[in-house]
Amino acid sequence: MDERRAPGATDDLCRWSAVEAVAAVRAARIAVSDYVEALLDRAHAERPSNAFITLDESGARARAADLDARVAAGDAPELAGLVVVVKDNIDVAGLPTTGGTPALRYRRAHTTAPSVQRLVDAGATVLGKTNMHELAFGATSTNLSPFAGPVRNPHRPDLVAGGSSGGTAVAVAVGAAPAGLGTDTGGSTRVPAALTGIVGFRPSVGDGGPQRRYHDAGSVVPISRTRDTVGPMARTVADVALLDAVVTGATETPTVDPRTLRLGIPACLWSGLDPALEVVVHRQLDLLATAGVTLVEADLPELFELNGAVSFPVALHEPRTDIPDYLRATAVDGTTLDDIVRGIASPDVRQVFAAVTGDALGAQYDDAVRVHRPALQALYGDYFARHDVAAILFPTTVLPAFPHDLEAGSSTVRVGSAAPTDTFGTAIRNTDPASNAGLPGLSLPAGATADRLPVGLEIDGPLGSDRRLLAVGAVLESLLEPTPPAPPASR
Fold first, then answer.
1. Residue 276 forms part of a structural domain
2. What is the mean pLDDT of the chain?
3. Burial of 248 (C-beta count, 10 Å sphere; 0-12/13-18/19+)
4. Does 489 map to a domain?
5. Residue 288: inside a domain
6. Domain total for the chain?
7. pLDDT digits (tens, 9 = 90+) for 280-314
8. Given a cut of 80, is residue 411 above it in pLDDT?
9. What is the reported pLDDT for 440?
10. Tell me: the pLDDT tens digits for 241-269?
């Protein structure tokens, strides 16, 4: 073992943040190769969680050796020592991009998504491609494709990890990587972050173009050009902010004083909560108020009605053109949308794609994007201005992690003692509206239930306020209850 390696067990290295790992390499306290080996060991130990679809051991080792040589020569990139995982619907040249679905199982990407490439150019090592809800169309990551399998929550493996970026969330939560990239259409970075006890970020999308913070269109297996975005996930806000800065070139570092911070508390997003989760999130409000944060109780009338007029009409119509466009631009084997649909393994995703291919809500699409979405954006804009709040605060999910339904792909779930409801709609109830408005959102770990299941609180900010939102998140992170780390696989 290299004598520069920091003292301590492998577990200690695997709990380092990305910022800590980069600093250790820069100070010559550890070789990149040793750090990568520790993470690979952890990834192997955690294989029962199904966090990875592809673990790129040879590629990661070769990259680490090259970085070590550059460190020795005094020519190391700034972020040598940053190790990330990438959701398996994001292209990384030379690695499969399966989308978690059988028809794409053996497809290899020939180019790398811009967000990943910027991280690599800065010195990052990609450890592998992570598991996900099949085709990203779900909020549980209960993937029934034979090569993938359901992603299992490391806090309790019989429970879902959240989705669709469940594999990235679990890899980060168990210490197989300090950070990674997921994608988010209606909650897919934030829901799994909340259910596994990490941080998940959805950057601004707005109406696309200059308003879109991350530009990866054409290099991600899509759902919706209007709503999709890549987003960072990590165990700390500082690590998420680091990845965001590299991807975007951002240099601003806002400061936030909790005593002057105003956060909106809309009743509609705080209603209908699971009782065990409700106790925890209200305890967090008390902590914030004690620290001087001003909590502005002001509702968002018609939020869910407006969101309903946008959400599924967009998400079920745009894949009809977006997926074929992606396949034509990137695939070499002539795979079509029909090929993908025929091979879908998860019953819930098969049902969704029946609606997609039948264009069940196509007649509602034009009004959704031309009338209802602008109205939703105006509702949020008015709220931020009228109440003078930096962000809206609410529980990321209305319930903690729940059991897998391996027969139906987790099609229904129960919140408290209420009747069973649609799993997908319930899981993304609070995350979906701001997604449709194109706003940035950040889910933070916020304690745990009496059963030690992680709980998340989310802040959504005005369009383009991403760095300010991350600064607010860093302050809240320091005030909220910590979430217990995921226990090791040997529990």
1. yes
2. 94
3. middle
4. no
5. yes
6. 1
7. 999 999 999 999 999 999 999 999 999 999 999 99
8. no
9. 98
10. 999 999 999 998 899 999 999 999 999 99
Q: What is the CATH number of the domain that holds 93?
A: 3.90.1300.10
Residue 366: how many other CB atoms lie within 10 Å: 11
For residues 1 and 297, give the distance between their C-alpha atoms in angstroms, rounded to a whole number: 56
Residue 128's Cβ-count burial label (10 Å; 0-12, 13-18, 19+) is buried
Active site residues: 87, 164, 188
The pLDDT-based confidence of 10 (bands split at 50, 70, 90) is: low
Phi, psi of 282 (to 5 degrees): -70, -30
pLDDT digits (tens, 9 = 90+) for 96-145: 999 999 999 999 999 999 999 999 999 999 999 999 999 999 999 999 99
How far apart, in Å, are the Cα atoms of 421 and each of 95, 163, 348, 354?
38, 17, 14, 20
Q: Check if the beta carbon of residue 65 is closer than 8 Å to that of residue 110.
A: no
- DSSP secondary structure letters along 95-128: SB--TTSGGGTT-B-SS--HHHHHHHHTT-EEEE
Whose tokens are 């508390």? That residue is 265
Amino acid (1-letter code) at residue 333: D
Domain presence at residue 69: yes
| Token digits of residue 2 | 């290299």
- Residue-number span of the structural domain to which 61 is assigned: 10-479
The string of DSSP letters for 381-405 reads HHHHHHHT-SEEEEESSSS---B--
**Residue whose structure tokens are 């800590």:** 20
Distances (CA, A) of 120 to 60, 70, 126, 166, 242: 12, 14, 8, 22, 13
